[in-house]
Input
Amino acid sequence: MLKVLILEDVRDDEELILRHLKRDFQFTHQWVETESDFRKALNDFEPDIILSDYSLPQFDGMQALKIRNQQMPETPFIVVTGSINEQTAVQCIKSGATDYVTKEHLDRLNVAVRNALEQKKTREEKEIAQKQLLESLERFRKFVENDISGDYLENDHEVLYCNKRVLEIFDFENLEELNAFGTRNLHVSESKRKEIFDSITRNGYVRNYEIPMQTSKGKPIILLENAYGEFDKEGKLIQIQGYLFDITERRRAEEEVRKSERLFRSLSENMAAGVVIYNKEGFLFVNPAATEITEYSQKEMLGMNFWEVVHPDHRELIKKRGMQRLNNQEVQKNYTFKLLTKTGKTRWINFTAGRIEFMGKQAAIGTVFDITHEKQIEFEVKKLSTVVEQTPLSVVITDIDGNIEYVNRAFISTTGYTLQEAKNQNPRILQSGKTRKEVYTQLWDSITSGKTWIGEFINKKKNGEEYYEYAVISPVMDEQGNITQYAAIKEDITERKRMEAEVLHSKEIAEEANRLKSAFLANMSHELRTPLNGILGFSELMMDAKTIEETREMNRFIYESGQRLLRTLRLILDISRMEAGSFRPSYQTVELLPVVNKVIEMFQQEADNKDLQIRSFCPIEHFTIETDEKFLSDALEHLIDNAIKFTTEGSVTISISEKTEHKIPYAVIDITDTGIGISEENQKIIFEDFRQESEGYGRTYEGIGLGLSLAKKYVELMGGYIRLKSKVNLGSTFSIHIPVSPYKNSKTDATK
Output
């Protein structure tokens, strides 16, 4: 929608202006009357057009115009004022105003606005056209440099310019070598050279002039030359521009034909290109190549007008240019258009034309090259370009130094870099630093030797986000096998990598679960079969016991085996109930030291049997907390049992202290042993279900690996946590942290 900025100090006048604008335009507007507001509106509102009063109390239109010229010179500026004389109007226009309208004639306002907007649009279109023209000139320069004909520009002293084809024809490395050798020395016949010069001097050009010459190494060649002279105002020849075709091989072939057929044929009859001569009445001459292209016979064509064989899409344009040429007007000499053959086929031709005198009449001559195949290739290239631009895969083309020349839309979407930002940059702007250096070494070794490289990168987008990329990079070679560019097709495989990682992780989890299952079954087999074997074995022996002492001893073994079996079954039942969520803490006031000592009494005999000291320590008399006594007792039982089991000499110490973390008071119970310790690797998994330092049938210690897991779960149900410090062969300390009283947002609350 049109945005209008109005600089006016009278609101009635502003309303009148708006009423006029609403007749023809849909717009939004902003009204200002001071310099500061005007400057702010230019920056924030960014108007499409400015309507300004000439005189205001604190500000005037000329000042506003100067500000517009500095900040938004392309924005139309129309002076709308109560009265204005011719001198003031001229001053406004000279200062850059687009137009002026008096308030007495506001009917003209909409016309002025429309004209101003159209002028702005015209300027913008002109700028775009100029840009396109420059691009077209650059493409033309590249075309000339790589033209199949030898293009040159020379004066009577030296060759000013020549393309690569000229150097190839005469076997020179560069222009300096050619000038040092001298073009006169390339001519075999001085008279022929003079003929060309005389023709250009006389006629202004020479066309399709066949001339024998030689290379810098003395090799004879035959060239077809077209040249045009440039003259000063006095008619003096300044310089010559022309183009050459090396027709040496063709002439040799023609000579063989002439020898074999004993028939002389004119140059025009044997040219690969069509040659036509025509005037306003129609064709005066056509060669066989022209009839072949048009599919009309020579007799049919000589009865037709030139533009009758042109395709309807281009007929009027070619007719206009042809008539201008025949009327001696300067028109474009070379252009491309479509022909329509006798059988209705469409053929693209490249046409070069000029004026000649033929059979005493002013006429035009043209050479016709069938470029239908080239056009088809061009269309295919455009089609391929469209595919490249629309493919979801990133496409990057670089020069031989690795500097980016082209990227497609997928690259822009994936990396966040625009074509302008990426162009002339090296692809290393995408490097994250996480791809191994040898990958880049292998890449360059492959592509610089002409091979395709396939691999993966860990790259980084413009916003810093890392992503995985699968790339296929190949060298692009010219007809001589020289590498001219490198092309890369790349795919963002981040999601695939993530899925692969998830699958691998799931596989590892499944394998670990399977291993744990096997270890669990082995442990369960051992923990169930061993006490059962003891019970059954000693029960059988009791039947043959002779004395009461033997019976008592065997009863003790049966009792211990039964306790071990009962403990195993209790662990399994507890973990099952824990998983089912049927455990809930029951809070009560608990004094810690008696609970600890009661658990110690349970293991005193076992500690004495291993000659271990087991003791408790609490510096706080009557240390009480609000918690579940059974959960606390069971957790202590598992941890003390674990400490005694894995300690062969020394002691087990249970100490009680108080600690505050994050403003929450905790009771801390440390169970410290001098046992075998736990490796750092196993410290990460020791609290998992069925985990032990040694697992399977060959393990050193009894148990099914649930004690520490249950202890951790009990403590967490009370809102606490366990920490472990351990070193192999130096012992371990398990620290139970339990809140002195229940608190919000704890795991305890979550289970209520």
User: Anything to note?
Assistant: The CA atoms of residues 291 and 680 lie 92 Å apart. The first helix runs from residue 11 to 22. DSSP finds 24 helices and 27 strands in the chain. Residues 146-255 form a domain with the Beta-Lactamase fold (CATH 3.30.450.20).
